[in-house]
Structure prediction request, 312 residues.
Amino acid sequence: MKILLLGKNGQIGWELQRTLAPLCEVIALGREELDLLDEKGIRSTVRSIKPNVIVNAAAYNAVDKAEDEQDFAMAINATAPGILAEEAVLSKASVVHYSTDYIFDGNKNMPYKEDDTPNPLNIYGKSKLAGEKAIRETEVPYLIFRTSWAYGLRGNNFLLTILRLAQERDELRIVADQYGIPNWCRMIAETTTYVIAAGLKDIFSYFAVNKGIYNLSSSGETTWYHFAAKILQSTSASTHKCRHVSPIASDEYKAPARRPLYSVLDNSKLLHQFGLNLPSWERSLDFVLSDYSNLPYILAGVKNAYTTDKKL
Prediction:
């Protein structure tokens, strides 16, 4: 049994290195070892490693920049997953891939199920939807996990942004009309690992039986504004100078890429198929911020983490 993990230095990939390690041999590659813009490199790497499972945690996640870098976003999020799936078919391997809530337009106003019709509003969402399609058009046994609002204690994400800004500003103005679900990267990685581990005896057949798209998301829902307020409420006031969080409308933020106003994901299929009842987003955040002894270290590294290039 051998797993090829791509995107090892990303938020989810970093956690997957730890969670997958006890299962079997894991070959973890980052941008330095494999350029996902290099089709020949992708094909030769998969053929030389001969994995049983390819876990693709690499992605172009710069939602606003994607509006100006459409070709780059499409190459990483759509073309590369298709190539990986083609090579997996040849190697008799299976594929795990991550997608996003941003494939929906947010007009439903109730949690999205896996078979709801996608209609992405931005290039990032379009590129991720194209990646799903590229995988599905092959004969590979796949698990596509759609998730949302990923965060953790490293990389470039909303949690670290709020912690950074709270050190610099007295007041934060946060969008309050976009509804979704924050998801801890470690929870995403642990759930993925649990699903894979359940099929270790016959991994190819297991993927074939369970093949499909699943919403991998915590329960509940919130807005960016309430997420920010919860972060600040859960951390010691002595670690930041911010004393007030003000709600604003999306139109006031004026981001280059449009976001869905409602992109909550229904995770009942994951529960039904694999028996996984994922925690609420609040409980996960409590776990992340519960160790106050580490917060000074985390906050000291926020600025460096925030400026790190995390396209992959």
